[in-house]
Amino acid sequence: xxDHEVLSIHGKPxxxxxxxxxxxxxxxxxxxxxxxLRARFEADGYLYLPRLLDVETLTxxxxxxxxxxxxxxxxxxxxxxREGVAKRECNVSAREMVGLSKNNEPLRQVLFSGPMKAFYxxxxxxxxxxxxxxxxxxxxxxxxxxxxxHYDIVFMGRGTKNLYTSWTPLGDxxxxxxxxxxxxxxxxxxxxxxxxxxxxxxxxxTNEPDLHESETGRRRWQGSGTGTYATDAIALREELxxxxxxxxxxxxxxxxxxxxxxxxxMDNLTNRLRLSTDTRYQLASEPxxxxxxxxxxxxxxxxxxxxxxx
Length: 310
What we know:
The protein is built from eight helices and 14 strands. By secondary structure, the chain is an alpha+beta fold. The protein has one domain (about 50-310): Jelly Rolls (Sandwich).
C-alpha cells in the first residue's frame, strides 16, 4: 500500500493518524449469521462484506464496462484493456451511465441475482425489490474525482426510509484509488438527520425562486440541486470529531450502508479508472421512490421536481 501521506481529498492531504482515519470493520466472520449482521449494521451503520460476490461474473462485468468505455474513447488502448488506464478525464453522462448498466448482462447478474439478492432476502427477511436505476461510477485521476459527504436519503427518500445502498467495486480499489469512505457513527447524528436528512434534492421553494441557488457556509440544503452536506470532508471530520473509515477493496467485496450513513470518497491518485456501482434494495412490500423505477426512470429530471411553500 502507498504511504498514507499521499492520500487526499480535492488535493488536500488527509490526516491518517488513528484518531482521524481507520479501517472498515470486516463482517467476514459473521457472513452466515444474519442476527449478528443486523446487530452490527445497527451499531455501525454499514456492513463490509469481503469477497461476498462472484469474482468470475464481476470480472466479466468489468471487462464489458471497459469495452464500452473504450468505445467512448476514455481508455488508453496502449495498455491492456483489463488495466483500465485512463486516456482522458472521464465525465460519464446520465445517458451513458444507463447504457453502461443496461448493456452489461454480467453486471446485471451480479447486482440483481445470485449472492447479492440472496443476501438482501435473508438480511431483510422477505422478498426484495431493487431500484431499477443503477449508478455506474467511473472516476479518472485528479483532485476533482472525490465525492463530497452526503446522505443518500436526500436523493431517494420518497419511498421507504428502509432502503439500503450496495457499493460494489468493479476491480481492486486500493486506498490510493480513492474508494468509498464511511464517516464513523454518522448514522447516529440526530441533529443532522432531523435537518439535512429530511431534505429532498428535487424540492424547490415556489415563493423564493432564487433559493435553490443559495449556499449557507459549507452546507447546501433543500433545493440546492446537489445533495451535498459539506464540501470539505476533512473539515467536516474535524468538526464532528469522528473518523473516516475505508479499506483496500478487492473485486468481490460489497459495502452495504443505510440512507443515513454519511459517506464520501478520496481523490484517485492513479492513472487507472476507478469503476464501481451503487444500487439500492428494499422490501418489495414497502413504498418505492418513483424517480428510480421503470425502464426509463425519471431520475432527477424535470418530472422529479416538486415546488413547495418555504
